[in-house]
Write a structure and sequence with these properties.
Family: Belongs to the ExbD/TolR family.
Structural class: alpha/beta
Strand order of the largest sheet: 3-2-1-4-5
Protein name: Biopolymer transport ExbD protein
Helix content: 25-40%
Membrane topology: Single-pass membrane protein; Single-pass type II membrane protein
Strand content: 5-15%
Number of helices: 4
InterPro entries: ExbD (IPR003400)
Main location: membrane
């Protein structure tokens, strides 16, 4: 094994010192060899608590949206002959769980609704002082609705100014 002394005063040394790199890699290897088995054993013993679901006390100001699609024949929910939402159907968003709206109408109505709530609270500064007064959007999405439909609804309500978007799901009985 050859040892370089720098090659004299006339030529610069061009060898890379790999000792610090090897030291760091060995330390990381030892850390991961110890940490990974500990983490795996900890995760396997994790017990998730089960709570009885309670009805939420929604603020009247919260906006409720339902996202669904038409069936294979283009029939919307609530119309006669509706065979159920289809992944190949067109997106349908229901404002307040009742009124079907387009993307533009969703943005406009959500903005107008939020603006009215903010003005009634005394303006943006007054509503920011009490975060409990800020309305939220709750989305109930059909299991067969494509994610693009839900994402479009989220985009529109956030563009209208709603800072919090949540999802409503059916509770699952843990004993079943």
């Amino acid at each position: 094994m050859a040892i370089s002394t720098g090659g004299g005063a006339d030529t610069p040394m061009s060898d890379i010192n790999t000792t610090p790199l090897v030291d760091v890699m060995l330390v990381l290897l030892i850390i991961f060899l110890i940490a990974v088995p500990v983490a795996i054993q900890t995760i396997e013993k994790l017990e998730i608590p089960v709570f009885e679901s309670t009805e939420s006390k929604d603020k009247v100001e919260n906006l409720l949206l339902t996202v669904s699609t038409t069936d294979e024949n283009g029939v919307s929910a609530g119309e006669p002959g509706f065979a159920g939402a289809s992944r190949n159907g067109q997106c349908r968003v229901y404002f307040g769980n009742v009124t079907p709206v387009t993307s533009e109408e969703l943005y406009d109505q959500a903005f107008e609704r939020l603006d009215a709530i903010v003005q009634r609270a005394g303006g943006p500064d007054a509503i920011m002082d009490d975060p409990e007064k800020i309305p939220q959007v709750h989305i109930r999405g059909d299991v067969n609705a494509p994610w693009s439909c839900v994402a479009g609804a989220i985009y529109n309500v956030q563009a209208a100014g709603y800072p919090t978007v949540g999802f409503i799901s059916n509770p699952v009985d843990p004993n079943a």
